[in-house]
């Protein structure tokens, strides 16, 4: 008789609240020592003291399927069905983390979808460590926010099949609940604002550098009003990248032009040296040829005529002509 549900209890999900726990596990709970000694004649007021004594969470463990005290108290709460205010106080309790975990699991089993999202989602900000006993009887460390996430998204927690609830997206589309803003999104927004500030600082520095390399002969062209009014961070980053690429291309083009001018100048100097060397060689060669030609030439025509005239005069007995 001690295992019956109270008379004025309301049916949950169309059935007896204790039937939310599977029959074989429920039978093991009824037979365990903790249920017979600690949970007998337990009321909602005395439930608080038993919950404060919890040291870990878990379902069943061992080869013979032994239930944990946490699972026994969950079934006892389903049996006596405490008021909703008591369960909410369990969830809002910040001193005893296992009391909070007990209230969260009971709210997930018996509450509506709106109640589950309303009371369990704030527990995502609870990062305390809790001990959990697995099926093999070993203990493992988990965090409270992980446990709450399992309650909202997993099908089985602590060896209890959880009732199905509506997706949060459907409730948001029906305007039954507001969109949730997580702490991660707030951190991302802070990071984006810091990135925007750094981008603005980099933009100012790049603008100062561009002024040093700016051609003063060209007229200044201001930005269009569209970009001057509300520049977005992505557009500024793209403009900064394109400007840096253009600046690198200009610098590379200047370097290539300098190298080409140096090569052209070197080739011109080399050609001038070759021309001067060829001209010197040509002059020396022609000078030697003229000297050698003069030296190899025989007597000139005047000399030949004088000699013939002297031979003729010698035959005639006249005096020779002087050259």
UniProtKB/TrEMBL annotation:
Q: Where is the composition biased (Basic and acidic residues)?
A: 202-223, 245-260, 271-281
* Pfam families to which the protein is assigned, alphabetical: PRP38
- Which keywords does this chain's UniProt record carry? mRNA processing, mRNA splicing, Nucleus, Spliceosome
Record field: compositional bias (Acidic residues): 184-201
Instruction: Specify residue ranges for compositional bias: Basic residues.
Output: 261-270, 282-296
Chief site of localization = nucleus
Domain of life assignment: Eukaryota
Specify where the region named Disordered lies, as residue ranges.
184-308
Question: Which GO terms of the cellular component aspect does the record hold?
Answer: spliceosomal complex
Q: Which GO terms describe its biological process?
A: mRNA splicing, via spliceosome
Cell compartments where the protein resides:
Nucleus
Q: Which InterPro entries match?
A: PRP38 (IPR005037)
> Of which family is this protein a member?
Belongs to the PRP38 family.
Function (record text): Required for pre-mRNA splicing.
Query: Could you tell me what this protein is called?
Result: Pre-mRNA-splicing factor 38
């Amino acid at each position: 008789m001690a295992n019956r549900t109270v008379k004025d209890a309301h049916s949950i999900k169309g059935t007896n609240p204790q039937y939310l726990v599977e029959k074989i596990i429920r039978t093991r709970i009824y037979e365990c020592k903790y249920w017979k000694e600690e949970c007998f004649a337990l009321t909602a007021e005395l439930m608080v003291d038993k919950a404060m004594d919890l040291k870990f969470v878990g379902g069943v463990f061992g080869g013979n399927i032994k239930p944990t005290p946490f699972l026994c108290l969950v079934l006892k709460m389903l049996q006596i069905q405490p008021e909703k205010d008591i369960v909410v106080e369990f969830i809002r309790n910040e001193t005893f983390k296992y009391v909070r975990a007990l209230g969260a699991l009971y709210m997930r089993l018996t509450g509506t979808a709106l109640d589950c999202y309303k009371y369990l989602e704030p527990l995502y900000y609870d990062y305390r460590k809790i001990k959990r006993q697995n099926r093999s009887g070993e203990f493992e460390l988990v965090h409270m926010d992980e446990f709450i996430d399992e309650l909202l998204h997993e099908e089985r927690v602590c060896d209890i099949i959880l009732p199905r609830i509506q997706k949060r997206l459907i409730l948001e589309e029906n305007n039954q609940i507001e969109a949730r803003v997580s702490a991660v999104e707030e951190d991302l927004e802070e990071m984006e604002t810091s990135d925007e500030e750094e981008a603005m600082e980099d933009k100012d520095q790049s603008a100062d550098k561009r002024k040093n390399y700016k051609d003063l002969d060209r007229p200044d062209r201001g930005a269009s009003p569209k970009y001057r009014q509300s520049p977005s961070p992505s557009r500024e980053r793209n403009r900064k990248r394109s400007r840096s690429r253009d600046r690198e291309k200009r610098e590379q083009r200047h370097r290539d032009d300098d190298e080409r001018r140096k090569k052209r100048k070197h080739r011109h100097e080399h050609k001038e040296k070759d021309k001067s060397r060829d001209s010197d060689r040509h002059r020396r060669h022609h000078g030697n040829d003229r000297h050698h030609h003069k030296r190899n030439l025989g007597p000139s025509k005047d000399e030949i005529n004088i000699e013939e005239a002297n031979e003729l005069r010698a035959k005639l007995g006249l005096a020779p002509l002087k050259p």
